[in-house]
Amino acid sequence: MTDKFARALGWTSLALGTAQLVAPRAVTRLCGVDDAPGATTVARLVGGRELLHAALLLGAKDPAQWAWTRVAGDTMDLGVLGRAAANRTGTRRTRALCALGAVAGISAIDAVCARRGTAKAKGPLKVHASITINKPREEVYRFWRELENLPSFMVHLDSVRSLGQGRSRWKAKGPVVDLEWEAEIIDERVGDLIAWRSVPGTGVSTAGLVSFTDGPGGRGTVVDVSLEYGMHGRELAAAVARMCGEHPEQQIRDDLRRFKQVMETGEVVRSEGSPEGHRALRQLRQRPAQPIGGRA
Amino acid sequence: MKANVWTGRNHLEVRDVPDPQILNARDAIVRVTSTAICGSDLHLVDGYIPTVKKGDVLGHEFMGEVVEVGSGVRDLRPGDRVVVPFPIACGACFACEDGLYSVCENSNPNAGMAEKLMGHAPAGIFGYSHMLGGFPGGQAEYARVPFADVGPIKIEDDLPDEKVLFLSDIFPTGFMGAEMCDIKPGQTIAIWGAGPVGQLAAASAFLLGADRVIVIDRFPYRLRRAQRTGAEILNYEEVKVLDALRDMTGGRGPDACIDAVGMEAHHPTPAMYAYDRGKQAARMETDRPYVLREAIMACRNGGVVSVIGVYGGFVDKFPMGAFMNRSLTIRTGQCHVQRYTGPLLDRIRAGEIDPSFVISHRMPLSEAPRAFELFKNKQDECNKVVLTP
């Protein structure tokens, strides 16, 4: 809803910007500032700025937070119109005051939209990925449930140590310092699903759910993973993203691909271009496809 | 070891690179005894395949002797003579179990890259860009072969390299091109491209029972070679292909059409050629689809268009209306080589076909760059080059 609203603001910017570029004189007359030297130039510049808002609000995937650029523009416009009204009398003053009132109203709308957008962006980060593995459900489940196996296909994890009673200690490589936290299994149905979350107060805030279902027509096992990073967990997600140069969604997808390789072929598949196996950083910066030399 | 390395658009160098080593337990190292240059290598050298990197070792058609195997390889041992299929396939995923080896779900470590361009990722291929795995190719003295227990086919008799080398790619590719046409007695198959793949597709179409095969190209020496398989020929610089095909098939059009050309096709009308060539140069489309367009227009109602020529990205002016309204079927794919190596080796052994008829040049690996020149510029009637390290 907020995003739809933001898109509408984008269309408004587009219309206004176009009007200011095509007919700057009409706009200046309407605002009562057509007597100022250089008024049409200013109108054109402001028109250009409006098109910039339009591009952001109509082009972005999550447009609402970009309404802040409109709020900034509104503030500028209020300043200019306020001065214009103060320096004028008669019809021009009335027109400038009307324009001022209109902009003030619009500012309020923009601010509401922008605040909603920010709130949405700051909520927990959720990612989801899915893969189908050509192995029986029981076997796929068992490998994952042995949490100490996870680092064999989740590259950002250093180690997972089981502490017993559903608790485990996780270590991940961070960009500066390594991250370490404790997690607990909060729900478990043998062969079906495992849900876990970080223990409150142990550094990061993250939760995950993996479910295992029989693929249709005997097609192995469908593995669905959902991860959620809370306010603190976002740091972990960001660290992972920075380190690997990739979006957490891409990260989990690559992790699942490695999981599939391990389950179906016994190990992570390596090429000379990316000897570590799937890894986004390597996908961006490949070695040449020629033998490595030395010992691997 | 020496290897043929891509050093930039239209630049190749035979260089010293490190010897390959085992990276996965199911790898084998093969000492290459024969390797060939493929038409699809030209797309790569010309810079039309995305994600090729300076320093990449080229070549996906090779055979040789196993010199080392990883701990997970049971049915190969040092000394075995093998031909290596160009797609790398794990043998354990759904695609491999279905015989769709060239879309193996596990053999491409850069699947994420390919997904961005193609939606889903195909298999890894030797020496064919990083999007397709970043595996070094076989135009080298040695090559690492992943999943050595799945792909390589052992050659246990004294068949010479030249008779079996093309099991690595072009013979199965040509054969699959013909097989996808579902040939029935009395049918006419038209093939665009009289290169080695087109020639082998023509020979395969006859093996599969085609009544007539018509091969289309513009190089007389290649058309003459295609003619030797029993095919009729058309030079598209001399005749209007659509009219000629209509005339030759009682107005119906060929029952199936094979595109054995792909993304760098040519057009006899300079303006038409300039249109797509210009867009390609400006990166507005990656592929020049003249053959695809013409094959769709030529095919009889309800017929099959079988695409084995390589495409890289996007094409413009795809005649979707003709394709849809005339009930055509397109079948395509990088060849699932592993599916064909056994049966085709049997046919070679039985003397039904000797694919070495496509060879025109034999050169040492050290002359690979010159061999590419000859092959690319169609000099010295170059048809197919076999390199020996």
Task: Report what the structure shows.
The complex is a heterodimer of chains A (296) and B (389). Chain A is of the alpha+beta class and 296 residues long. Chain A contains nine helices and seven strands. Chain A has two domains: 2-122; 125-283, START domain (Alpha-D-Glucose-1,6-Bisphosphate, Chain A, domain 4, 2-Layer Sandwich), CATH 3.30.530.20. In chain A, helix 3 runs antiparallel to helix 4 (67-86). Chain B has 389 residues and is an alpha/beta fold. Chain B has two domains: 2-169 and 335-388, Medium-chain alcohol dehydrogenases, catalytic domain (Quinone Oxidoreductase, Chain A, domain 1); 171-332, 3-Layer(aba) Sandwich (Rossmann fold), CATH 3.40.50.720. Chain B contains 13 helices and 18 strands. In chain B, helix 6 (196-207) links the parallel strand 11 and strand 12. The longest helix of chain B has 13 residues, at 337-349. The radius of gyration of chain B is 20 Å and the shape is globular. The model of chain B has no long low-confidence stretch (mean pLDDT 96). The A-B interface holds A 132, 134, 219-220, 250, 253-254, 257, 260-261, 264-267, 269-275, 277-278, 280, 283, 286-296 and B 1, 3, 5, 17-21, 23-26, 51, 53-57, 72, 90, 92-94, 97, 105-113, 124, 127, 130, 133-137, 142, 144, 146-147.
